[in-house]
Amino acid sequence: MGKIKVIELFAGVGGFRLGLEKKGKFNVVWSNQWEPSTKTQHASMVYEARFGAENHSNHDISEVSTAEIPDADLLVGGFPCQDYSVATTLQNSKGLIGKKGVLWWSIHRILSEKKQPIKYLFLENVDRLLKSPSAQRGRDFAIMLKSLDELGYAVEWRVINAADYGMPQRRRRIFFLGYHKTTATFQQIKKAHIEDWVESLGTIAQAFPVDELQNKPVNFNLSDDLVTISDQFNKGEKLSPFQNSGVFINGKVYTVKTTPALKENGTVLKDILQNGEVSDDFYIPEEEYAKWEYLKGAKKEVRTAKSGFTYNYSEGNMVFPDALDNASRTIITGEGGKSPSRFKHVVQTKKGLRRLTPVELERLNMFPDNHTRLEGISDTKRAFFMGNALVVGVVEKISEALYERINS
Predict the structure, then answer these.
(1) Would you please indicate which residues are annotated as catalytic (active-site) residues?
(2) What is the pTM of this model?
(3) Cys-Cys link to 242, which of 46, 130, 361, 393 (CB 3.0-4.6 A)?
(4) Which residue from 389, 399, 397 is spatially nearest to 47, judged by alpha carbons?
(5) Residues 6+ apart with CB under 8 A from 113
C-alpha cells in the first residue's frame, strides 16, 4: 500500500499531521479546524500557513456535509470531552440524537454516512473521558464504544503519559485506534487472546511497551442500546469500570491497568530551554517574586464567596521554580501572559526567574521551533495553542506502528 490517506478533524495547529507525515507514509487529504468561540480563526491561520489552504476547511464541522469530505483510509482527531448523552426523538424512534454541538456526533455522522467505510480511526482525548460524567462514571466512553460497535469498529485504547516514554512533558492523554470489520486487524483481534493484544501484540503496545500485566482484567458486555447506556450505565457507582488500557470488540469490553515498561533517561526541562536567546519580556521583576511564591505555595485559609458564604480553602504547594532535571509539568492553555499564576511554568536562570517562551512550549510538545509564529498571533495565543495541542512524538510512534500493521 502506498501513502495512507488521512482526514484530520479538530486539527488545531496540526499536531496530528506533524506526527503522521514525518516519515512520509501518511498523506492528509482533507482537514478541518473551527474554533466556535472566536471571531478570528487563529489556529486555522497557523495551520494554513504551515500546510497550505488547499483541502483545508475552516467551517463548523457539524455543518459540513459528508459529501464534501473525500474518501480516506484513516480518520484522526483530538476531539473535546463533552456530554455524549443521547435521546430518542419522537418523530423518529430509530433516530438517536446526541446534543447539538457535541463533536463526537460529528465524527459519528461522517463515519456512518461515508459510502466507502473509513477503515481506521486514530483519536485522542483527555484521560478524564474514561471516568466522566461524575454521576455515571465511564458512561461517555461506553456511549462512544457502543456507537462505534454499531458502525462496525473494534477499538483499542491506552492512557499514555508522554514523559513515561522519554518525551519532555508529563502529559497524560487517552489514545484510541479503531479498526473496521473489513480490515485484517479486526479479524486478528477477534482471534487473539485479548491479554496478549493489550500486553504485546496490539498496535499501541508495539509503539509503547508495557510491563507484564499484574492485575486481573475486567470483562463486561455493552449489550444495551445507546439510550439505555446513556440513562443507566454505572449509575450510583463511585468508580469507572474502564482501566487505562483495553480492547472492545463485538460488544465485549476487556480492560486492565497497565504500567509502562521502564524507559531510559529521557528529555528533561533544561534540555529544551533557549539559553541566552530570551528577551527581557519573559523575566519576572523581582518585586513580583512574592506574589508568584504565594500563588505557588500551600494554602489553608478562610475565603468568602461573592454570595457572602465563607469556606475553608486549601491547596498543596507547587514546585517553584520548576525542576529542570525532570520532564515538565503539563502545559495548560493559560500558560502565556505576564500575570503571576499558580500554573504557569517558571525556570531559574543566571539572570533570574522567567516564564517559558513560545518556542520552549512548542519544544515541550515536540513541535518544530516557531511552528506557531505568524504575524498577528500573540505570544499568549501561541501558548494557548500549545496548551491545547498534543505531544507530536506520541502520534509519530503510534502512526509508525499502525502503518506497519496495515502493511503486514
Answers:
(1) 81
(2) 0.94
(3) 130
(4) 389
(5) 66
pLDDT (tens digit, 9 = 90+) per residue, 151-207?
A: 999 999 999 999 999 999 999 999 999 999 999 999 999 999 999 999 999 999 999
Residue type for position 61: I
Strand partners, 312: 302
- The amino acid sitting at 63 is E
For helices 139-150 and 104-113, give the axis angle rounded to 10 degrees.
Answer: 10
Identify residue 303 by its one-letter amino acid code: R
Closest by Cα among 55, 61, 46 to 13? 46
Instruction: Kindly compute the dihedral angle of the four CA atoms of residues 120, 126, 128, 133, in this order, to the nearest 10 degrees.
Output: -70
Per the CATH hierarchy, to which homologous superfamily does domain 4-264+391-406 belong? Vaccinia Virus protein VP39 (3.40.50.150)
DSSP secondary-structure letter at 123? E
Whether residue 217 is preceded by a cis peptide bond, meaning omega within 30 degrees of 0, is: no
* Rg over CA atoms, the chain: 22
Is residue 385 a contact partner of residue 335, using CB atoms and an 8 Å limit?
no
